[in-house]
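Q: Fold this one first, please.
A: Sequence and structure below.
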Amino acid sequence: MNPDFLDLLAALVRAEARFLVVGAHAMAAHGVPRATGDLDVWVQANPENAARVWDALIEFGPPVRALGLSKADLTAPGVVFQMGEPPVRIDLLTSITGVDFDDAWSTRSVHRVGTLDVPFLGRTALLDNKRAVARAKDLADVEILERREPQDG
């Protein structure tokens, strides 16, 4: 995993933020690696967690205020905050389609990434998200995931 990705994940873990890695990196965690130009990180959108995520972002180092992000934005559903450019872009999301954060958190899949224990979207929630988004590539991902045995974690 890219060092910038690891730095952000480490900052989120240290801040005790509630977040889940979603998207292509979650697919890889469930045994289906594919090329991607970003890291998608879904954060729980409530004031307490927003403060933790904000602290992690300040530690990580992007000029969040200059880029137009506020701590309040991290409490609102539907926010997508992008940092960097592909292939090392990070997308911070406050919601994803078809899945509730609390439900997803309770079924998260934790994987070791370097020296970190990182929470990923669980297999069932990943399938629910892919079905709800329903783009051709997401439906293809559903077919592949359904054919594979669930991975440990």
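Q: Good. Now the second chain.
A: Here it is, same layout.
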Amino acid sequence: MNDDSTSRRILVYAAVTGALGVLIGAFGAHGLPDFLARQGVDPETLTKRLAQFDTGARYHLVHATALFALASLGFGSPESRRWAARFFLAGIILFSGSLYLLVFTGITKFGMVTPLGGLSWIIGWATLAVVSRKSKHL
């Protein structure tokens, strides 16, 4: 896969995850409190769940933006950029996705997956650092 197709693919991932992040965040702000209240979630747990959901949505959008930046980079090998993108995507799914599931279902075991998403993001950022360090264009 050449550099243009790598950038194009990562840009599609950025756009899709960004749109989903906005949609999910909007639901979290406007629909989730009533949804959880109708499920019988007590006020203390409701506050905690809304904060968890907000954390998932915020990090989701941060990493959608990171994907956009990664697509826009004019340096680094396509392969290394693809790996960074994979780790960012995995982080969105594992970190944010597990928080979304925890909040919707109340199954706290989903929280055990969340740190794996954080680790995935750390690896993605480290990959980006290595790509940047090796670049002759900066």
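Q: Anything worth noting on the second one?
A: The radius of gyration is 17 Å.
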